[in-house]
Amino acid sequence: MNEETIQSGVTIERSDITSLAARDLISALNAELSCMYPEEGANHFRLDADEVAEGRGAFVIVWRGDKAIGCGAVRRIEAGVGEFKRMYVIPEERGFGIGHLLVAALEAEARALSLARLVLETGVRQVAAIALYRRVGFTEIAPWGEYAESPLSMCMAKDL
Description:
The protein has helices at residues 3-7, 20-36, 98-112, 127-135, and strands at 10-14, 57-64, 67-78, 81-89, 117-123, 139-141, 153-159. Strands 1-2-3-4-5-7-6 form a seven-stranded mixed sheet, with helices on both faces. By secondary structure, it is an alpha+beta fold. Strand 4, helix 3 and strand 5 form a beta-alpha-beta unit.
């Protein structure tokens, strides 16, 4: 299948992080990460609704028809800098370019928030995610903030 065929019927919409679809996707993400990183203190699952409220950030859901297949968020962490959070694509939709679409949508939201730099944290065992972030222009940076002491974290950044 070509990318156009795979992505037909796919839409990305800004959404309420407390919606049922958002909660289901985040629960699936949390379960997957908990299995991948069972170590004590390895998970950084926090993202509050006010952090993705209008003017501060955005939470988006990727839909294929009426099925929620992915999500992600960007939140402002300081003047001009935003962080990607809660990036997830359901397993059966991986490898078809949905992650690229999700990153592009979140970068557009970041630009609308006047953010000039994006940062993110991902786990060192998430090889596919790391590869995606590198393909779209993120480079590795020193761990920062709550991730500074985590040997399982990889931090990355991209200037917009």
